[in-house]
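User: Hello! My lab partner asked me to get a predicted holo structure for this protein. The small molecule is zinc ion, SMILES included with the sequence. Please write out the structure tokens.
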Amino acid sequence: MTINSIRTSHTNFKLHQNYTDEKLFPLIEKYNINVENMPIIGSGAYINLQEKIQIIEHLLEAHELALANIKAGNITKRGFATNICTNDNHWSIGTNFNNTRNDISSICGERSAILASYNEALVRFSKSGSNYFNFKIKYICMAQSEELSMIKNSAVPCEDCLSWLNTTRYFDDMTTIFSFEKNQKGMLCLKSAKLTDFLPCKDYELSNNFDFEKPVKYSSSAINSMEKFNLTEEDIMVLVNKNYDLYKENTLSNISNQNVVCSVLANGKIYSASKIDWTKRWFTEPLEFASSKAIENEKEHCKIAIIAYFGDSCSYNPLTKEKFNDGGISIKSLGRIRQKYASPDTLLVLNLEDSLTVLTIGEYLPKKFIQGYKII
Ligand SMILES: [Zn+2]
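Assistant: Hello! Below are the structure tokens for the protein in complex with zinc ion.
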């Protein structure tokens, strides 16, 4: 997709009857936005002018909610809000909720809005008499509390939100994220991006087939990283074998039946951890756990050069024929470790069905792993 792939159609649409109508679009009026002239940038989907008006009005509504959230005393003093549109054109709004400074008692605006949207869709479903729950999200419109004149970069989902969004259940290849961003001329633009631009490549599903006769594949970025970190193929295989031994020995993933193990090479030493189940839904995530061990030992100088992450295949619901990407590497944990102790160049060794694949974090989660990235 390129920037040119998004266009605005003016066909069959009379401007003066629509977005200039204060009653229908009061916020576009209040902020004095010239919808027709606002450039659309990014790699997202085709929208027509009517959709553009709807999206901008709902982005402004989210902006006002984000402002209200700060005024109400949200403890982070930062306001974010999201307006969600379902495939059947119902809108729901939510803002960030920060009850304490801990992530367990906080939720971002995107997830807050998804929850509102899901609950409202369920209410409609319960009243409809239908047996088919049709709930897919079309647009995710993300706004910040920052004054429109001060906005530089668009709001993007964090890795905790992406862990939620990385499912085929309520999102699909068409789900598009919209936000405001300034272009190089300082003009306020509508930024659009496909949700899939932010998610890991679905080709990297883990496998529990440990036939190590299968080929070892190195990406070109992986070869560059090996040179950068001064690593050999043997260094990688030592880590792989250690991780495989751990996989065989792990009996602690006994409630979920989903075994995952992770080993990291940091400052020349191997640190490992197994997934430990507390309940079917609660477990200790091995990437974060192994990395924590490394960081605790190596302190501030900890540099994670390789991650080997092995686990069981994605789970599959034969009733709905839905596949859940819950056998993938944890986006949430990658989001944490890349902040400081790993980098987009850190090698990632994954056991896939047909190969043992060596790539980099930057390839696994391409654009969002560069702080302040730009969508190409
Ligand atoms: Zn988030």
